[in-house]
Amino acid sequence: MTHAAITGIGAYLPERRLTNADLERLVDTTDEWITTRTGIRERRLAAEGEATSDLAARAGLAALGDASLKPADIDLVIVGTSSPDKIFPSTACLAAAKMGASCAAVDTMAACSSFVYALHSATCAIESGRAKRVLAIGADALTRHVDFTDRATCVLFGDGAGAVVLEESSEPGVLGIDLGADGTRPDILEIPVGGSAAPATCERIEQGLHYVKMNGQEVFKFAVRVIPQTTRKALLASHNDVDDLKWLIPHQANQRILDTVADRLGLPHDRVYSGISTTGNTSAASIPLAVNDLYTCGRLMYGDLLALVGFGAGLTWGAAIVRWTKEVR
Ligand code: ACO
Asked: Domains in the chain, please, with CATH?
């Protein structure tokens, strides 16, 4: 059987930093509130004129470089995002052009689970023999959709992108994936206006309905329930156990979510990746950014077993069990 394995990884964070102290000057909040409730100390903001496809292209080129490949070597570009440049063309199409690639390109939209969905599509394309090399990117500029007068949401998000190259391999890399979706409660986390259900009108924009709306406590309850569930299902599908994991790499939404799922899975907290303090919630980008961070810091060894776990609006969720098949950096 043909397997899919990660052969390259890259990331990009915009330069501009927004600290909790900066936010104290914008809204009625404190560094102490943000840090204790979320673990976030600062986040990055895309520059004026910098779109999600720019972030995606930067991360994609870095991943291609890491795999010693050129854009022309890629058969398919998949961008997981919930902050596309435009409704159409797709962000993948625009990012591919910015990288100098002219292969097939498509977006996956599953909010903060988008990267795991992209990884699933990439793995299926390779395992079925329809593609040999796929670039799977998670990229978001959600700060463009956040109301910077709403203290409940504006402290949470940051912008960024991460990417992996997947290639066909005799050695199994992506071992098992579990995905799920429940669209019966879209109101828990949504951008209500701007799509076909409710196009943007002056009146709706005046009401701020084009911004992220979130029921934080419902998201919290959903996350701490679904992360252990989907992780266990993906582990079962890959014939592994929680104890086999070197790293649990959940979507980086909130430190308290990370701590709670570590306890629920019976994992030591130091085996659950946390990078949220410096990036905030970068949505689809957070998982590949995390993997890239571990890799570039030399904390990923050949053969390590990883669980990449996303959850987000939809509601959506997904876990991928990955055997790390690159040598330590
Ligand atoms: N600064 C100061 N006070 C604040 C802030 C802020 N930034 N935001 C809210 N508050 C206040 C509220 O107004 C409220 O005040 P009140 O008691 O006078 O009414 C009080 O703090 C408590 O508000 P809650 O919403 O109950 O706060 P909670 O303890 O639930 O924490 C949080 C909010 C951090 C969002 C929490 O619900 C959470 O972690 N939820 C998970 C959601 C999440 O991580 N979302 C990320 C995006 S979704 C995703 O990535 C899938």
From this structure: 3-171 (3.40.47.10), 176-323 (3.40.47.10)
SS3 per-residue string spanning 206-268:
HCCCCCCEECHHHHHHHHHHHHHHHHHHHHHHCCCCHHHCCEEEECCCCHHHHHHHHHHHCCC
Predicted local distance difference test score (pLDDT) of residue 311: 98
The question of whether 145 is a catalytic residue gets the answer: no
Question: Which residues share a beta bridge with 226?
Answer: none
The low-confidence residues of the chain, meaning pLDDT below 70, are none
Closest protein CA for atom 47 of ligand 1:
253
- DSSP run (H or E) holding 289: helix 286-296
Q: Is 240 a catalytic residue?
A: no
Determine the Cα–Cα distance for residues 20 and 253; give it in Å rounded to an integer.
Answer: 16
| CA-to-CA dists, residue 98 to 55, 62, 94, angstroms | 10, 13, 6
pLDDT tens, 97-108? 999 999 999 999
Distance, in Å, from the CA atom of 198 to the CA atom of 190, rounded to the nearest integer, reads 12
Looking at 3, 103, 112, 120, which residue is catalytic? 112
210 counts as catalytic: no
Could you tell me which residues are beta bridge partners of residue 10? 163
First to last CA, the chain: 28
Cα–Cα distance, 235 to 94 (Å, whole number): 35
Q: Is there a contact between 35 and 41 (Cβ–Cβ < 8 Å)?
A: yes
Q: What is the pTM assigned to this prediction?
A: 0.96
HSE value, Cβ hemisphere, 13 Å, CA-based, for 327: 1
What ligand 1 atom has the least distance to the C-alpha of 29? Answer: 1
> How many contiguous H segments (helices) and E segments (strands) does the chain have?
11, 13
* 12 touches 140 (CB < 8 A): no
d(CA 199, CA 204): 9
